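Q: Fold this one first, please.
A: Sequence and structure below.
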Amino acid sequence: MATALVTGTSTGIGLATAVTLARAGHFVFATMRNPDGGGELSEIIETEDLPVTLVTLDVDDDASVVGAIKRVLEEKGHIDVLVNNAGVGGGGAVEEVPLADFRQIMETNFFGALRCMQAVLPSMRQRGEGCIVNVSSIAGRIAAAPQGPYASSKWALEALSECLAQEVKPFNIRVALVEPGIIATPIFTKAKPLRPDSPYPQSRRIRALFQEALKNPVSPYVVAELIREIVENGSWQLRYPVGADASALLQTRAGLTDEEWIARGAVDDDEWVAMIKRDRGLDIKLSS
């Protein structure tokens, strides 16, 4: 069984991944910025007597990452699997999102994953084995307004992962990108209020789309089960779309030119609502 370190395990995909790997018999170091906020995970661990240890780790902080991974290596001697799940959401029109917000999203979603990878890679390389699973998003493959800040961070993570996969394959280290579609996690409850005076309609539209899609929620345990399979199956496949809508969205985007895709994102409200109904079967009600 593997020793796995999973980031961002207080809720959502991270929590589900820690639980799923532990239920499969793997030893899990479940990390989060504040373990006192991991009540749900702690309860599951205690109830099921799972092999999980909570560790404080803030992916935005160099010293925190180095210290946490040093602790794990001292305790277990190795890390077989790193699951970079910690992340934050964030959208809005490019004109309207403060630079500080862009920087914070990139700090967590991109540099946070990079910090953890750089910290575990020396020991994986020296042992001649390892598995790194980076939780990206379908937004890492498809750029749709108003997801400029979030999509940029995930596109960067995708590019980094593809480069890394080439570098470390000779050392028997696998790299995988998991690309969820709309998954029922608390990330959607943390969205900032819409700007009532915005001239850009896309934020209002995507908020309504998420609300409608989440009426038929996809559990984060669907993603966690895929991560378990990646850890255990030894595959060298790089990308794994997951969720009811992920593959369909990729197929739609692949069938359009760049210009056609841009035109779709620029239509008026009525045409957009009709398009979503036609393509995704969702009845969107837009507020005025």
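Q: Good. Now the second chain.
A: Here it is, same layout.
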Amino acid sequence: MINCEQASTICNKKQYKEATLFERINLSLHLLICKACSSFSKKNSKLTVLCNKADLHLLSEREKTKMKETIERSI
């Protein structure tokens, strides 16, 4: 049986479709007996759905560099 820390790691891996079948089975068994991890898993799933709906995009490396330079100049 996995512990809560392992369950949260697997839950996060599952979110990105990186969890193995064995990990998903162990997570499912753990969620049956652990209310805290079950709640975490449900909230994590909702967060994933909301992020996908938000159509988020990452900053390019150029944008990151420019932002960093602006911050450093203001210090």
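Q: Anything worth noting on the second one?
A: The chain has four helices and no strands.
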